[in-house]
Specification:
- This protein is α/β, with parallel strands linked by helices and 339 residues long.
- The chain has three domains: 133 residues, P-loop containing nucleotide triphosphate hydrolases (Rossmann fold, 3-Layer(aba) Sandwich); 68 residues, Orthogonal Bundle (Helicase, Ruva Protein, domain 3), CATH 1.10.8; 122 residues, Zinc Finger, Delta Prime, domain 3 (Up-down Bundle).
- It contains 16 helices and five strands.
- It has a five-stranded parallel β-sheet with strand order 2-3-4-1-5, sandwiched between helices.
- Strand 2, helix 3 and strand 3 form a beta-alpha-beta unit.
- Helix 12 packs parallel to helix 16.
- The longest helix has 23 residues.
- The radius of gyration is 22 Å and the shape is globular.
- About 1% of the residues have low confidence.
Length: 339
């Protein structure tokens, strides 16, 4: 069955005991992780008990294909249900999951967290069609979802933002749930227990790194397939006199690092280790994990070729550099959309 995102929170409060195999997938990996953790906690209450909770990175299954089955069929030494959480899964892990689709899993619940899969991918269809299976797609936050997140996090900490501040946050926070939470946590920490309300100027200063004027947002919009946002950002940047070639060179450097990370991951390295080894700075590693999710090294190589050709065209064809840059980044964004 499909368990829609808008019904997920209600499901956690009253779980159907017949459902034992869950797949959470989608472009918003922060939301995938958040819901996966919440589902595990709804069963166990804590993730600190090694006898009841087992976490596996999907990359480890290449060296030990039987581990998922072993963990899913093991009995809890202390009695009660066990939870097995498989993280960073891809469509390539359908064979390991297939055996679980036919098992009753009476003593275990299996939670699979995957990246940006197609709805008709074999893994999604397999879990969705299992008699005890449920799939929940996790997409980037819509405006109403972002409003809810802002009000939930700030309101629970005694902060009641004005409509002007809410509108600013909704426009400037990213679409990834985990990154948005980190930015809101900064506001909460800054506000502390003071009685004076937050001002828009304070919010702009604290969330300044997420501003649409930041050239790195243009790279993010292109690499995450955010076409409308990319068009808006490029328009503002070119109006401000930014250099098209500077954008192309910045994204070339980013694509080189992402290509290396994706190649290492494709070769079997854990995604987080591949990202670190590729030289991506710590503060950008979570974003890089989103950008390579569901995309191989060949995808990054194609993007790099597009930007290199665009730079040459800017210097040799006589056509407007802004037009060439815009077209190149739009091609990358279109190829990076959820497939």
């Amino acid at each position: 069955m499909e368990l829609p995102g808008q019904k997920f929170d209600a499901f956690l409060k009253s779980r159907d005991p017949k459902l034992r195999l869950f797949l959470l997938y989608g472009a918003d990996e922060g939301l995938v992780r958040e819901r996966g953790r919440a589902l595990c906690l709804s069963v166990l209450g804590t993730l600190d008990d090694p006898f009841s909770y087992s976490e596996i990175d999907a990359g480890e299954l290449g060296h030990d294909p039987a581990r998922l089955m072993d963990e899913a069929t093991a009995l809890s030494m202390m009695g009660g249900e066990r939870v097995v959480r498989l993280r960073n899964a891809t469509g390539n892990h359908k064979d390991q999951v297939a055996s679980l689709a036919d098992l009753p899993l009476e003593g275990s619940i299996v939670v699979i967290e995957a990246g940006d899969l197609k709805k008709d991918s074999a893994l999604v269809k397999m879990v969705k069609g299992a008699p005890h299976g449920a799939v929940t797609p996790c997409f980037h936050d819509k405006a109403q979802d972002m409003n809810g997140l802002i009000q939930e996090m700030l309101g629970s900490n005694g902060i009641h933002p004005t409509r002007e501040i809410t509108d600013y946050l909704r426009e400037n926070l990213g679409g990834d749930r985990a990154i948005s939470r980190q930015e809101l946590d900064k506001l909460i920490l800054y506000h502390g227990k003071r009685e004076a309300p937050l001002t828009l100027d304070e919010v702009r200063e604290i969330i300044g790194d997420s501003s649409d004027q930041n050239v790195f947002d243009i790279m993010d919009a292109a690499l995450l397939g955010q076409l409308d946002r990319l068009e808006r950002l490029l328009g503002r940047a070119f109006e401000a006199g930014e250099s098209p070639i500077a954008f192309l060179r910045l994204i070339q450097n980013q694509l080189k690092q992402l290509h290396k990370a994706a190649a290492l991951r494709d070769a079997g390295m854990r995604p987080e280790d591949a990202i670190r080894k590729s030289g991506i700075p710590y503060y950008n590693q979570k974003k890089a994990a989103i950008q390579i999710s569901g995309k191989g090294a060949a995808h990054m190589a194609t993007g790099l070729d597009i930007t290199l050709k665009a730079e040459i065209d800017c210097k040799t064809t006589g056509y407007p550099a802004e037009t060439i840059c815009r077209r190149a980044l739009m091609r990358i964004a279109m190829a990076s959309r959820r497939r």
